[in-house]
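hey so i finaly got around to running the thing on MSHA biogenesis protein MshI from Photobacterium phosphoreum. pasting the sequence first so u can double check i didnt mess up the copy paste, my clipboard has been acting weird all day
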Amino acid sequence: MVQRVFSSFLLRKNPSLNAAISLFSDAVVVAVENEADVIVDSVSITSTSEWPSVIEMLIAKHQLTGSQLAVVLGQGLYQSLLIDKPELSGDELTLALPYLVKDLVNEAPEDIVADGFSSLHNDRLQVFVSTRQQLNKIVSACQTAGCIVGCMTVESVVWSEFTVENRSQLVVHRYGNGNLQLTAFSQNKLFFQRQLRGFDVPLVSEPSSNIQALQLDSLALELQRSLDFLSAQLRDDPISQLLISCDNDNNQQLALALNERLTVMVQAVEPSLSLLTSTGTRVAWAGLKQGFSSAINLYSQHLQPKRQWLSLNNMAASWLVLMVLIGVTSGVYSFKSRQLVPELVTNKAQLTTAQSQLTLTQKQLLLHIVSPIKQQRISALEQEIMAKKSTLEAVANHDASLMVGYGQVLTQLATAASNNIAIERISISGHAMDLNGVARSPDAVPRWLGTFNRYSTLAERRFQLLDIGRNESNQITFILQAQRMQEAN
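ok and heres what it spat out for the 3d tokens, dont ask me to read them lol
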């Protein structure tokens, strides 16, 4: 029991991002950073209903339990929208985005999640939308496998990892046998997207044919139209390079064929790792490298579960700590009391000797003429006796307080514990006792104080101040200040 209670505190840490999962309608790909190497693994699926089982299998296979993951949604699993930029702050915009795009999607605002960033034109906002049901399924699968979803981004954004910062580039990419996707980046920032339909796979093959040449001419025409449009948008930094990454195609030959037909340089994407041979693996690797710096995070902070401090485990742990603290405090005071016993016996013996000496001196005074010297001696002895009596009284009071007062008060205070009250600070000095803590509700504090009459030591305590408020975490706090006795002048 004790181990389970404390494990929730001892095992909490900030896990590092060392893996990324890219999800597609027909595959799940994981990229794992292992020391100086990267491991890439892919599993084919028939439908997205297999996501949870495949995610759990990949996490267990690569021993990722306890890790923080980056999730990348592939094409078809999200929508990309361009809307007018509203006059809202960052936090307000995050909450308002689902309602700003409600007329552009089929789902209700409550059923979608959205995130965005300012486009190249400052008056426009690039927004990405996914369904809340899809997000919950992914997050639940990762949590069931013992991992935490740190961020959830989209394929269109992570392609920036294959571009360079000091130039504008257009990436032509295709996943599987799907449609061609055009994604343009300037300074590593996405600012244009377009989909090209009707182009067969592969675009280049051996031997070449007239149909293939016509298809390449048609593709080059569509690309040139996009390049002309982008040149008009980027007057200061036009597109200077076109990157090719198409599945089921010879990207090198495709780049050579397009170089002959376009005015800009065309080059096949050449990842630094030889394992990145497909679009799925490249997207997973890009998500791993981009991590928390991604411009899009559909799993934002307000969607993540809030940590419940006032849980059963936390309450049990706090009471266990309190009981241990009370036991240790009681043991310390008992030990100090036993240490004071010899001093008390010595003082009592000195008091008995002093009293005997005083009695003898008084008898001698009766038999002799009183002299000033003897009077001074008597006065000095009397003062010494009074000082020792005061010392004995102080020691006795301090000893009784240690053995009875504090130990009994703390014991009865622990017995009077309430599930609605958590004490954070106890201050006891003599008959004064101050209490600070948190409560489940404002009326829980008076009800708890009413139970003090059942305990002899607590019933003697009087309080002059009860202050109930709230802290920064919106928890109800209380301060009980004991009544101070004013000494007579």
